[in-house]
Amino acid sequence: MTTFKNFIGGEWVEPSTGDYFENRNPADTTDLVGRFPRSGAEDVQRAVESAQRGFALWRRTPAPARGDVLRRVGDLMVRRKEEIADLMTREMGKPLNETRGDVQEGIDTAFYAATEGRRLFGHTVPSELRSKWAMSFRRPVGVCGIITPFNFPMAIPTWKMFPALLCGNACVFKPAEDVPHTGHVLVEILLEAGLPPEVIQLVHGFGETVGKSIVEHPDVPVISFTGSTETGRIVGETCGRMHKRLSLEMGGKNAQIVLDDADLDLALEGVLWGAFGTTGQRCTATSRLILQKGIHDRFLADLEKRASALRLGDGRKDGTDVGPLIHEASREKVESYVEIGQKEKADLVLGGERPSGKDLQNGHFFQPTIFAGVKAGSRLEQEEIFGPVLSVIRVDSADEAFRINNDVKYGLSSSLYTRDVNLAFRALETLDNGITYINAPTIGAEAHLPFGGVKQTGNGHREGGWEVYEFYSETKVGYLDYSGT
Ligand code: ADP
After folding, report:
1. How far is the CA of 200 from the centre of ligand 1 (A)?
2. What's the chain's Rg over C-alpha atoms?
């Protein structure tokens, strides 16, 4: 069993606290992945001081050269893809096909960032005045605090750090305490690719100590956070008070709508993957299935059959469809929503319990669960569960479906299955979400597409796409007067 270190001040170091926590495999908690630093505020302080030195150096490196480092990062990730997918499944639980996809998103983000190094454009603007030149250009902002969740251990940190680094910033990175091994490997790769050591700082530990110290540090002007709504609110309050630049990405209560004219086979594949992939632990997970009355009964019966055949297990074993939940507290939260659903008189048609399989007793497994007859406005229909629980709602019309889709406090993704092209376009305009998929599930992202939600899902910033480069850079105006020449 390995004991891991922080990366602070350009070297691998032990935490100032001398204290470590254990990281265990959620599919089998007797399997100890490693011991990681339980760092404190002093480690964050040293990391920020060092990152400031790194920033002074890195901001003067030409953007295309910064892009070259990220291209090498992408190459190294390609080479280590299988190894990373395996260690990620071990510490996080989702099956290998999903962790491979997670690494691939990191690779795509690296290559996309590399090309942006040659495209970090500003504008020239015609001046109102004679003999003047006006222009805008982009400058880095400073030390960025990167705080990430457990569900996409590689993709999400890369969505944040690669554009931040490309723009010339330095990063203080705190991976989620549940997936520190993937965070460790990512930093190893950045260093091997030639990133100057003080530009990246890795501080392992917990949110209330390390995360909070980063957010509250006066010399960290940028925070990028993805995680729960409750934590996001705390982070948001602090950043507001301290006037920090903040990107917040939090919850979702995403719906897949299936209308009477839909391709039902396609819609069935979509909801199975959307609701139960990553054991429902995605901010884009399909948590509500809105079925039009004409296909409701048939679709529900088919779904029940297919979902009951999903195989739970260790994500590193062939044939596993659904892995465990990340911890015991998550499983208890899911159980509490099963109780809530029953109290609200929803109809439990599948699952609702811990599985009985002998090989599943050491992990945080929970059966794929489906409630039908869920009422719009009930807690089951409104609140984020972050587990394999799907609520089915029956509607008469597309308009009713659209209204129910919009009637929640979150607004990340939505999905509509229909063959009616006019309705599809209307949905794109009408549905209050950052992303609407037509004839595709509520999940999925591409490195060069802006990702993010409306309403209480976030604060309006986007990850990915050109938009993220605006977040990590500052517009500066240059104004030249040559009338004296
Ligand atoms: P999740 O359970 O989806 O990972 P959390 O919101 O619990 O969501 O955690 C997301 C990230 O935020 C983790 O890296 C966690 O350690 C960190 N975190 C938790 N509490 C705080 C806090 N008070 N301040 C800053 N970061 C925090």
Report:
1. 20
2. 23
For the stretch 274-286, pLDDT in tens is 999 999 999 999 9
Which residues are annotated as catalytic? 249
Kindly report the pTM of this predicted structure. Answer: 0.98
CATH number for the segment(s) 6-250+458-478 = 3.40.605.10
What whole-number distance in Å separates Cα of residue 470 and Cα of residue 345? 48
- Averaged pLDDT, 309-317: 98
* Beta strands at 473-481 and 369-372: parallel, antiparallel or unpaired: unpaired
Q: Which residues of 97-113 are buried (b: 16+ CB within 10 A; e: fewer)?
A: ebbbbbbbbbbbbbbbb
Residues with CB under 6 A from ligand 1: 147-150, 174, 176-177, 206-208, 211-212, 215, 227-228, 231, 234-235
At position 8, the amino acid (one-letter code) is: I
Contact yes or no for 178/188 (Cβ under 8 A): no
Q: Whose CA is nearest to atom 24 of ligand 1?
A: 212
Tokens 């004991």 correspond to: 3
Q: In the predicted model, what is the mean pLDDT of residues 7-11? A: 98
Question: Cβ distance 106 to 77 under 8 Å?
Answer: yes
Strands in 222-304 per DSSP E: 222-226, 245-249, 254-258, 286-292
Atom 27 of ligand 1, residue of closest alpha carbon: 207
CA distance linking residue 303 with residue 307, whole number of Å: 6
The string of pLDDT tens digits covering residues 46-102 is: 999 999 999 999 999 999 999 999 999 999 999 999 999 999 999 999 999 999 999
- pLDDT on residue 439: 98
Ligand 1: which of 148, 206, 209, 231 to mutate, judged by most atoms within 8 Å of the beta carbon?
Answer: 231
Residue range 254-438, CATH number = 3.40.309.10
Q: What is the mean pLDDT of residues 454-468?
A: 95
Mean pLDDT of the chain: 98
Whether 167 contacts 28, CB under 8 Å = no
pLDDT at residue 1, as a whole number: 80
- CA nearest 247: which of 169, 361, 349? 169
Residue 255 sits at φ, ψ, to 5 deg, of -115, 140
- Would you list the domain boundaries of the chain? 6-250+458-478, 254-438
Which residue type is seen at 114? A
| Token pair listed for 168 | 């010339």
The one-letter amino acid at 375: K
Cβ atoms of 474 and 141 closer than 8 Å: yes
Q: Which ligand 1 atom is at minimum distance from the Cα of 175?
A: 14
